[in-house]
Amino acid sequence: MTRPPLSAEHREARLGWWLAAPAVATILLVALFPLLWTVWESVHLHDLRMPWLGRPFIGLQNYLEAIGDARFREALGHTLIFTVATVTLELVLGCGLALAMNRAFRGRALVRAAVLVPWAIPTVVSALLWRFIFEGRSGIANALLSDLHLVRQPPVWFIQAGLAWVPVILADVWKTTPFVALLLLAGLQNIDASLYEAARIDGASAWRQFRYVTLPLLRPAILVALIFRTLDAFRVFDLVYVMTGGGPGTSTEPIALYTFNTLLQNLRFGYGSALSVIVFAVTFALALGYIRFLGAGLTETRA
Amino acid sequence: MLRRQLARLAQLRPDIRVVQRATPDAADQRHQLYVQWLNAGASEPDILQLDVVWTPEFAAAGWILDLDRFRPATDSFFPATVTANRWNGRLYAIPWFVDVGMLYWRTDLMRSPPTTFTELDQDAERARAEHGLPYGLVWQGARYEGLVTVFSEYLGGFGGRILDGTRVTVSAPPAVRALTTMRDQIYRDTLVPPSALTWHEEESRFAFQNGETAFMRNWPYAYALMADSATSRVAGHYAVATMPAEPGGHPTAALGGAQLAINANSAHPDAAWAVIEYLTRPEQMLERARGVGQFPTRPAMYDDPALARALAIPPAQARTIIEHAVPRPVTPVYTQLSDILQIYLHRALTRQLDPAPALAQAAKEMQALLDRVGLGEGGMRATR
To answer: Are residues B244 and B281 in the same domain?
Structure first.
């Protein structure tokens, strides 16, 4: 029995696979393997501090515990609040900033560079900075509030459940708006100037130009910014870790901090892994959702 | 300091070579590193410096050697430091130096320290009214281990405890009174500033050192740091005492400090013991007291005038406080229990919950944890 000779197309496909193999293997190794490992851990009881309990298979018990875990549900809620608040603010402010930077004016290059400074500062440093601003009697924020006679008794920001969010969200908005602005600026520069010219000739107001020309054409850039920022905000960790440590109580504890505490402080590998898998599933679903609902234009082939 | 002591040991015992390994200063990180090493069955390091609350955890996990085989002279140490290092009746670590929570008070504002919480409130109020101090009392109120140590001192002062054998007793009436007192000191009596709920040791020391408060709860380290009149407004005007207690309670000092233990997988347990035995001798402890102000764990040393010259704090005062030291719950899951307690204490102190429901919920979760790992009512399980 002789094998029929492979067609040229077949041979090429096979060569293609061989050429792609290293890349595929790398992806499997660095992305899929840790993920599967985490899933495997999450169906076991694995408590590093209690080796006498062994490491038995316990099915979905860790997941059931997570569902019944009030602190986990609250952390999920906090993460959502943080994500919605920061992403909305950053998008609105970033859009304004991008529109401003898109105008031709003297010193534009300097402004563009200056805008990036907050983004360039390491998060831990900016978190400390913002903590000092809002801390105690000596903080700038409270000095400002009392000098302007806005409050009679300056608040202690970090001991009130609602107020503690203010510095955290402000710090994130301050740091990340420039990043969003730059992404949107890139999008703005791709828009053909002749479209605005045409709109002006048709007598469209500035608002209508923005609404019917800028926004639709900016959609791909907005989508990219949204995905990046949402996923980033969902994983917020260092900022909260430094500023509030999740307090007061656990009222600013995001999901990443809770998972970190479970995994690395309490060394509950099994349960912590289950939490990580849930977080992964949520972020993955979010990303898919964005692409589906907003990204129709992004995945279509352009004529 | 340690290097010098080890160099002397090398002359005494040329057959033993000790290599020092640096570990993170932060307790949490050091703990994490130890757990990773020990869990992997590493045979090094042979000797571990443990925080006082880790011993039962490491002992129950089978990670450190039972030291009774070396017949240590346990009765020459403060009893509380020995209790804290026992698990299931066996000794697993030797107390190296001891740390205790204490009440710093201003000798220029009052003649003697308060002995009850009621007196403390009155003294603080008077000092504040007469001398215009912004605060009366400061302590460590951030959500971290320090808060549990402060609470445990109030709790002891009201006659309560966190754990009674296998039962969590942190929701009992004395605990509710202790936590209510802490909260009232902030909001009702306004003696403790609300910002203290974000403070660790150093922030409270700054407040005391700047003369802003009549009292401070802190550890011994602050004593020597505040003695310099160039940086401290209270230099020469403070002393220490045991935290106060109400009738029915006992003045209580949270017990901290370091212990030395031997890795269960160590290839040289006898040499490791020789090193520990050497480092915990009175001469070495005296040198530590002189060099870094750490309290010896041997009560007999407190009668020695040499210690009085070595320590900034008068040894008689220190000794009285150490004799009131109470270990935090001696259980392998202490850190997890403390984690739960920290959250509910902080929620109550930041007025998200009232003290009674906060402690009830904390007790419920803590008991559930004990039951889940087999350390609850079902009886103590034996270690490996």
So the answer is: no
Which of B202, B225, B253 delimits the end of a domain? B253
Would you say residue B339 lies in a domain? no
Angle formed by the axes of helices B173-187 and B145-157, nearest 10°: 110
State the ipTM, two decimals: 0.82
Distance from CA of A239 to the nearest CA of B (A): 16
| Pairs of residues, one from chain A and one from chain B, whose beta carbons lie less than 8 Å apart | 84
Q: How far is A53 from chain B (nearest CA, A)?
A: 8
Best mutation target among A52, A64, A263 (most B Cβ atoms within 10 Å) is: A52
Nearest-5° Cα angle at B24, B18 to B25: 105
**Do B225 and B113 share a domain, yes or no?**
yes
Is residue B306 located within the same domain as residue B238? no
- Mean pLDDT in order along chain A per 10 residues (303 residues): 70 90 90 92 88 86 92 94 96 92 82 86 92 82 84 84 92 94 91 88 88 88 89 92 90 94 87 93 88 64 42
Q: Give all domains of chain A, ordered by start, each with its CATH number.
A: 46-297 (1.10.3720.10)
B134 and B227 inside one domain? yes
- A230: which 2 tokens? 């949402």
Partner B contacted by A48 (CB < 8 A)? yes
- How close is the nearest chain B Cα to the Cα of A249, in Å? 5
Amino acid (1-letter code) at residue A200: R
Q: Is residue B337 situated within a structural domain?
A: no
